[in-house]
Amino acid sequence: MSQEITNEEKAQLLIDYMHRIMMHHAMWYMEATRQLGQDKAVSILWDAYQRSYDIQMKRLSKILGFEMQNSIPKPLLDLPDDTLESLKNAIAVNWLANDGVWFQAIETSHSMTEAKSCNDACWARFSPFEANSIKRLISLEDQPGLDGLKQALQFRLYASINKQSIIHESDNSFIFQMNECRVQYARKKKGLADYPCKSAGIIEYPSFASTIDSRIQTECIGCPPDDHPDDWYCAWRFTLP
């Protein structure tokens, strides 16, 4: 570089580089989706992601001096189970905080209506992406049925943040309940009404379920601003006809 910078400035630049990589990765995926369609873009995404990950981790492991084991940094594998669990939960909470920061930034600069519109549109893209990510992570078959959906729901980011439960209803259906919701609990502590998340939920849950198995149908039992009992905030019925 032509201009000398301090170690602190260099460290800040490294962090900014990582942010740029994440953004560029997301922009490639979004443009592939726009030009090639979501199904093709998703297939390409996993190929590009795995190859890019392997290249980046190989280079970083050489510089920072850590081993890789089964494509995972060994220092992560060597962490105690409770530390790894705490780290998993903290990253999930960071995801939720990031989501909230974006919502508040648009709400503050524009309006609640525009923030909700952006939020709902984002869920239309993120929910099927998360479902595809989980299918790949736990090696679910293409049409894994309700048992596959039950498995997948345990691997969502929300599963590390909120308390949720699954109630067997019949051989062809089950009910999923969000018993404790971090967002709604925070609002309740401040004396605020429930956040009306149903407009996002009716996008989020059906798209997640149908990505896991295209045959699965989703019904909203209740979601704010709907009235709900004290033991859950939202509830959804998943049926395989």
Structure overview:
By secondary structure, the protein is of the alpha+beta class. The protein folds into two domains: 1-78; 80-241, Muramoyl-pentapeptide Carboxypeptidase, domain 2 (2-Layer Sandwich), CATH 3.30.1380. 61% of the residues lie in helices and 13% in strands. The strands form two sheets. Strands 3-4-6-5 form a four-stranded antiparallel β-sheet. It has a two-stranded antiparallel ribbon with strand order 1-2. A hairpin with a 2-residue loop joins strand 1 (68-69) and strand 2 (72-73). The radius of gyration is 20 Å and the shape is globular. The protein starts with 6 loop residues before the first helix and ends with a strand. The relative contact order is 0.08. The mean pLDDT is 96.
In percent, how much strand structure appears in the residues?
5-15%
CATH domain class of the largest domain: Alpha Beta
Question: What CATH architecture label of the largest domain applies?
Answer: 2-Layer Sandwich
Distance linking N and C termini: 63 Å
Helicity, as a percent range: 55-70%
- Average pLDDT reading: 96
Q: What is the number of helices?
A: 8
What string, H for helix and E for strand, traces the elements in order? HHEEHHHHEEHHEE
Structural class: alpha+beta
pLDDT under 50 segments (min length 5)? Answer: none
Number of domains: 2
Strand order of the largest sheet: 3-4-6-5
Rg, Cα atoms, Å: 20 Å
Q: How would you describe the shape?
A: globular
